[in-house]
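Narrative summary of target 7.
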Amino acid sequence: MAATEMAQVFQSRFGYAPGTNAVVWATEESLRETDALLESTPASSDLTTLYRVIAEISLPDVHVGFFLHSAEKVAEDFEEYGEISIEGEVEPALVFGSDGGGHLLALSPSGRVWRSATASPFGRFDLVAVGLRELLDGVTDQIREQL
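Modeled conformation, tokenized:
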């Protein structure tokens, strides 16, 4: 896996040890959290399909950092902040991740992925990917660039 290779060369390249970079595979507990997310939020099928395989991702050393929040965290944030209105989207989006700078990632029902311009769910969001696959392919490309 590219993330494992990145961790192996990270210190020699950057001069300090990498943080904890991990892809956490789905478990019975995370699958229950995904089912609860489906019941309590407008989560898209793309996101819940992803959660059936991967429970969460923490890659603090990839570019500025990439974090796929757990289904439980997404549900908690939805309860606290509600749906995210994004200009140009007919239906509200759901925050599902973030980067190391605190910018949020939101997935709209159209499948498009948006990144907040500030570290707030209430500001402007800019389009970053036409879908989760494109976003994750971009993260993989960033990992490879760091090798």
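The first strand starts at residue 22 and ends at 25.
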